[in-house]
Amino acid sequence: MNHVHNFLRFWYDFVIGDDWTVALCVALALGATALLTACHVAAWWLTPAAVVVVLAVSLRRATRSGGGTGDRTGGTGRPGGRG
């Protein structure tokens, strides 16, 4: 049972990651693309456009919130954050 739990946890972390809103927006874009395609509309462009917009919004939100120190040292002054 532990292997199943670890497997499901991996996929949750991989898909959802740090920002569930990005995963939700991409899922909605895929759903909208599927609906438009079912209505015989050429919607191949919708998912890539949505990903670009969602990425830009996510990056803007992360940089405005001061998402980190910006030096990749973990505050220790040494690469990898090891003190």
Descriptive report:
The structure is a single chain. This protein has 83 residues and is mainly alpha-helical. Helices cover 63% and strands 0% of the residues. It has helices at residues 2-15, 20-38, 46-64. The longest helix is centred in the middle third of the chain and has 19 residues, at 20-38. The chain is flat and about 50 Å long.
Instruction: Please write the string of helix (H) and strand (E) elements.
Output: HHH
How is the biggest beta sheet arranged?
A: none
Beta-strand residue percentage: under 5%
Content-based structural category: mainly alpha
Number of helices: 3
Mean pLDDT: 85
First-residue to last-residue Cα separation: 37 Å
Helix content: 55-70%
Strand segment count: 0
Contiguous low-pLDDT stretches (5 residues minimum) are none
Gyration radius over CA: 18 Å
Shape: flat
Secondary structure layout plus pairing:
Layout: H1 2-15, H2 20-38, H3 46-64
Structure described in brief:
Keywords: Membrane, Transmembrane, Transmembrane helix. It contains three helices and no strands.
Considering the chains and any ligands shown, give keywords for the structure.
83 residues; mainly alpha; 3 helices
